[in-house]
Design brief:
- The chain is an alpha+beta fold.
- The chain is 63% helix and 10% strand.
- The protein has 12 helices and 5 strands.
- The chain has helices at 2-19, 27-47, 59-65, 69-74, 80-94, 104-118, 121-137, 145-220, 223-248, 267-276, 294-314, 351-362; strands at residues 281-286, 320-326, 330-337, 366-372, 375-383.
- It has a 5-stranded mixed sheet, covered by helices on one side.
- Strand 4 (366-372) and strand 5 form a beta hairpin.
- Helix 2 packs antiparallel against helix 3 and helix 8 runs antiparallel to helix 9.
C-alpha cells in the first residue's frame, strides 16, 4: 500500500511538472497551492456541518477540485480564468450560510493568487474584482470583512510578484544563454583564426621547400639538396601538426596540454623557418621582450606569422623586413615587403588581414595593413600591462 502511494505521488508530481513546465514553477509550489485550496474548502464545508455525513455543500469540494483534475490526470493546465469563475461560484454558494471565522474566502485568496501567477495582468485583475464582488456582495464576516478583503488582495499581490520574479529570472536565463552563445562563437572564431594562421603559414613554407626540391631534381639533379629541402618541409609539417593539435585541444574538456603557446620570443624561430624556405627576411628586435605578456606575445607572433605567410605566397622573391620595438607601454611590430600585398581579385583583402585586425582589436591595440610607397606594410601597436 505504501509503495502504491509513493508511485501515485510520483505520478502526480510528474504530471504537475509537465502541466506547469511553461511557467517553470517548482512542482512543490503547485502541490502546496492545490493542497491549501482543497484544505480550506474542506474546512469551510465542515464549518457548515456538511462534511460528515456529506451534505450537498460537500459538492463544493468536487467543484474546487474539478479544475485540478486535468492537471493531475492529463498533465494539462485548465484556463486560470475558468478556475477563478468556478471558485467564485462555489464560494458564493458556501457564503449563503454565514459562519464565524469562515474559511471560504481564503479559497478565493488562493485562487486569485494562482491566477495572478499564471495569467496576464488584465485577467488576474478581473479575477480579483470578481472575488471582491463575491465577498462584498454577500456581506461576509461583518466586522472582519476588511480582513477578508486584505487577504484576497494579498493573495493577488503574492501571485503577481511570483510571476514578475519568474519572468525576470527567465529573462536573465535568456540573457545568460545569449552571452554563452556569443562567447562560444567568439571562441570558435578565435580558434579558427589560430588554425588558419598555423595552416596557412605551414603550407606556404612547406610548398616553398617542396617547390625548391622539385626544381633541384629537375634542373640540377642535386639529390642531397632536394632531400634537405624535403626534410625541412617535413619538419615544418610536423611542427604545424603539433600546433594544430594543441589549438584544437582548446575545444576539449582536458585543455590544451602543458606545452606553452608561441610568444614574442618565438618570432626569431619563425623568421628562421621562413629563411630556410629561401625567403630573405631581416629581423630587428629592440627593447625588453620580457615586458610582453603571453597573450600579447601570442598576438604579435600570429601577426608576424600571417604577414610572413602572405610574403611567401605573394612576394617570395622580394623578401621582408620585420621590426619589433618594445617600450614600457607598447609593443610595435612592423612587417614590410616590396610588393602590392595580399589583395584578392575583387579588390578586398583576404581573411588573414581581417583576422589580424580582430586579434589586435581584442588586445586593445590598432593595426594598419595596406600598400605604401615601398610595397606592402603591416604595422601593429598593442598596449602593454593594460595601458591604452
Amino acid at each position: 500500500m505504501i509503495a502504491g502511494l509513493i508511485r501515485a505521488a510520483a505520478y502526480v508530481r510528474r504530471q504537475v511538472e509537465g502541466a506547469h513546465a511553461q511557467m517553470q514553477y517548482p512542482w512543490w509550489i503547485v502541490a502546496w497551492s492545490v493542497v491549501a485550496m482543497l484544505s480550506c474548502t474542506v474546512v469551510a464545508v465542515a464549518q457548515r456541518d456538511a462534511l460528515i455525513p456529506p451534505g450537498w455543500y460537500a459538492l463544493a469540494i468536487l467543484a474546487v477540485a474539478f479544475p485540478m483534475l486535468p492537471e493531475v490526470a492529463l498533465g494539462r493546465i485548465s484556463p486560470p480564468a475558468l478556475n477563478a469563475v468556478i471558485a467564485c461560484g462555489t464560494v458564493a454558494v458556501l457564503l449563503r450560510t454565514h459562519v464565524q471565522y469562515d474559511f471560504a474566502p481564503l479559497v478565493l485568496a488562493l485562487v486569485v493568487g494562482e491566477v495572478a501567477s499564471l495569467s496576464r495582468v488584465r485577467i488576474s485583475l478581473g479575477a480579483l474584482g470578481l472575488a471582491i464582488v463575491t465577498v462584498v456582495g454577500l456581506g461576509v464576516g461583518g466586522g472582519i470583512l476588511w480582513m477578508y478583503l486584505v487577504t484576497i488582495v494579498a493573495g493577488w499581490e503574492i501571485g503577481f510578484a511570483m510571476q514578475w520574479q519568474l519572468r525576470l529570472l527567465q529573462s536573465e536565463r535568456r540573457r545568460h544563454a545569449a552571452q554563452q552563445t556569443e562567447a562560444a562563437t567568439a571562441e570558435r572564431q578565435r580558434i579558427a583564426r589560430e588554425i588558419h594562421d598555423v595552416v596557412a603559414h605551414s603550407l606556404s613554407v612547406t610548398m616553398l621547400h617542396v617547390t625548391g626540391a622539385r626544381r633541384m631534381l629537375q634542373t640540377d639533379r642535386d639529390v642531397d639538396e632536394a632531400v634537405d629541402a624535403l626534410q625541412d618541409a617535413e619538419r615544418v609539417g610536423r611542427q604545424a601538426l603539433a600546433e594544430i593539435r594543441r589549438t584544437v585541444g582548446l575545444l576539449g574538456a582536458s585543455g590544451s596540454g602543458t606545452r606553452v603557446l608561441p610568444g614574442v620570443a618565438d618570432i626569431a624561430d619563425l623568421v628562421g623557418t621562413v629563411r630556410a624556405a629561401g625567403v630573405t627576411v631581416e629581423y630587428s628586435p629592440a627593447g625588453d621582450l620580457a615586458r610582453v605578456d603571453p597573450t600579447v606575445g601570442l598576438g604579435l607572433y600570429r601577426i608576424a606569422q600571417e604577414s610572413l605567410t602572405n610574403v611567401t605566397k605573394h612576394a617570395p622573391g622580394h623578401g621582408a623586413i620585420v621590426c619589433l620595438h618594445v617600450t614600457t607601454t607598447t609593443a610595435r611590430l612592423e612587417i614590410s615587403n616590396g610588393t602590392a600585398g595580399p589583395v584578392q581579385p575583387n579588390g578586398r583583402t583576404g581573411s588573414g588581414v581581417r583576422g589580424m585586425h580582430d586579434r589586435v582589436e581584442q588586445l586593445g591595440g590598432r593595426l594598419a595593413a595596406g600598400p605604401d610607397e615601398c610595397g606592402w606594410r603591416v604595422a601593429a601597436v598593442i598596449p602593454l600591462n593594460g595601458t591604452t
